[in-house]
Specification:
The protein has one domain: Rossmann fold (3-Layer(aba) Sandwich), CATH 3.40.50.150. By secondary structure, the protein is an alpha/beta fold. The chain has ten helices and eight strands. The chain has helices at residues 18-30, 32-35, 56-64, 77-88, 129-139, 163-178, 189-195, 215-230, 233-238, 244-259; strands at 46-50, 69-74, 97-101, 116-120, 145-150, 157-159, 199-210, 264-275. Helix 6 (163-178) crosses helix 10 and helix 8 packs antiparallel against helix 10 (244-259).
Length: 277
């Protein structure tokens, strides 16, 4: 039964534009080798993907695990419509997925319906991550693995020093908190999974540290990160959380960092794995 007093998310910071949907698709491919490294889904048949979005992670899961069927749930009709169009263009996914408009905190599935679960960049956008994880646990069979990948936005660092970018990033995170999300939820995954009854919990902090040792990858990542930052610019400016001057200053700083031969990028996300018992 739904709790009428439960917290609610008041919006999605990035919006649902065509450009944002394309960014989500490119983000999944760009981070594929970091997020999908040795996932524990071999010989699994029925996966629940919470927050399937535009279907970008869905396609990767189906490609990596040929025996898998993915049931994806999302609260955004525009993103689900885009996911259906994207997956329809990949012939070998036909008949291997089902996408549904659902509230992840009260899913319309019987208990023990699935034998694995995947959540990626979704708990940062929900008001009550523990409620969502509890619901995922309900629909998983005993012994099922779950993989949760999340942000830890306090780890972001750039060199040369970029004060406008850091001011923007603080406003970005503050606004996400005000909207009901949590840009620091990655650090809390161990506690959250344990609190709702998962066991065999492993938490892996995955650092992205790019400097002169990998100039090509650093340049690619700076382009990706610039797109991510700018995807929230209109929403922040419209909400009065960030001035146009700061945004323009950030753009110039990002260009400077991108062309500095000694630039450094650092960010860490968190991936947790656990099982139902």
């Amino acid at each position: 039964m739904a709790n009428p007093a439960k917290k609610k998310v008041k919006g999605y910071l990035h919006g649902f534009t065509d450009a944002e949907q394309q960014r989500l698709h490119e983000q999944a491919r760009f981070l594929e080798h970091r997020v999908h490294d040795r996932l524990p889904f071999w010989r699994r048949k029925e996966l629940i993907e919470v927050g399937c979005g535009v279907g970008a992670q869905t396609e990767i899961l189906l490609r990596h695990f040929p025996e898998l069927h993915v049931t994806g749930v999302d609260a955004s009709e525009p993103n689900l419509a885009k996911a259906k169009r994207n997956l329809a263009e990949v012939p070998w996914t036909e008949g291997r997925y089902d996408l549904q408009l659902q509230d992840a905190s009260r899913m319309d599935f019987a208990a023990e319906s699935f034998d694995c679960a995947f959540l990626c960049w979704i708990l940062e956008h929900v008001a009550d991550p523990m409620l969502v994880l509890s619901e995922v646990r309900r629909v998983l069979r005993p012994g099922s693995p779950i993989v949760v990948t999340e942000v830890q936005n306090a780890t972001f660092f750039l060199d040369p020093y970029s004060p406008n970018t850091l001011n923007y990033w603080m406003a970005f995170n503050d606004h996400q908190l005000e909207l009901g999300g949590d840009p620091f939820v990655g650090a809390k995954l161990g506690n959250l999974l344990q609190a709702v009854g998962f066991r065999d919990i492993q938490v892996d902090v995955r650092a992205i540290h790019l400097d002169n040792r990998t100039p090509g990858e650093r340049a690619e990542f700076l382009r990706y990160w610039s797109d991510l930052l700018l995807s929230g610019a209109k929403g922040l400016e419209d909400a009065g959380k960030c001035s146009a001057d700061v945004i323009e200053g950030m753009k110039e700083e990002l260009k400077t960092v991108a062309h500095d031969p000694n630039s450094v990028f650092f960010y860490a996300f968190v991936q947790a794995r656990a099982r139902v018992w």
